[in-house]
Amino acid sequence: MGTLKLCLLSILCSVSINAQDIKIDSTNYCDFYDYKAHYKNSDVKSFGLTRTMIIDIVTNEMEKLGFKWISTFRIIKIEEGKYVTSICYSDKSNCGFLFDEVYETEHNQEDRKWKSLTKKYSGNDYGDRIVSLDGSYKFVNIKEVPDNLHILKMNDYWYQQSSNPEKIKKLVSKEFIENLLREDVRRFLKNFKP
Predict the structure, then answer these.
(1) Could you give the CA distance from residue 129 to residue 141 in angstroms, rounded to a whole number?
(2) In this structure, are strands 88-90 and 137-142 parallel, antiparallel, or unpaired?
(3) Is 153 exposed, middle or buried (0-12, 13-18, 19+ CB in 10 A)?
(4) Contact of 42 with 164, CB cutoff 8 Å
(5) Which long-range contacts (CB under 8 A, 24 or more apart) does 181-187 make?
(6) Helix 51-64 vs helix 174-189: crossing angle, to nearest 10
(7) Tens of pLDDT along 89-103?
(8) Contact, 151 vs 115, CB < 8 A?
(9) Are 92 and 69 in contact (CB under 8 A)?
(10) Contact yes or no for 32/171 (Cβ under 8 A)
(11) Under a CB-based contact definition with an 8 Å cutoff, are residues 32 and 24 in contact?
(12) Of 92, 83, 63, 57, which Cα lies nearest the Cα of 146?
């Protein structure tokens, strides 16, 4: 009986220790968001990859995979009067990436499944506005973005830092997020020839 209790105790301790050492990956990283970062005097700070950082990483991945004639901020006509701005686009391979700039303060792993957060809130894959020289503007909403364009949600590419070394171990790092973006880019581009 004593041996059985000792075995059960060992198993419970092992499970408890393993539960505390869950590895951060693309399927669970939102669960590691530390909401204390929202408080003024918190030692945890939240950041997001900037547009420039994202464009640099996407361009670099496209070049590494052999894509040619890459343009940044390419205006693409979807249909008459409907245009999108691609952040990186290969004219040769006819594929590229768009930004979804909707950003939420609460991060939910389920949001990674949405094509865009614009889709989640408006029913459109993509929305933007065209500004005229006189200051007037017109909204452009694209119900369905063509399959050769992939929307990168800015909301997905956040990370946190802390001055506390113990907390750093449990936070999503900038390096992890940069690698996540690289994986997202490669996953989309595997369907296209360079």
Answers:
(1) 8
(2) unpaired
(3) buried
(4) no
(5) 181/49, 181/54, 181/57, 181/58, 181/152, 181/156, 181/157, 182/57, 182/61, 183/26, 184/150, 184/152, 184/156, 185/57, 185/58, 185/61, 185/62, 185/97, 186/61, 186/65
(6) 50
(7) 999 999 999 999 998
(8) yes
(9) yes
(10) yes
(11) yes
(12) 83
Torsion of CA 70, 183, 30, 128, to 10 degrees: 20
- Residue 2 has a pLDDT of 53
What does the pLDDT read at residue 22?
85
In the block, tokens 């530390």 appear at 34
pTM, two decimal places:
0.86
Residue 36's contacts (CB-CB under 8 Å, 6 or more residues apart) are: 42, 44
- 106 falls in which pLDDT band (50, 70, 90)? confident
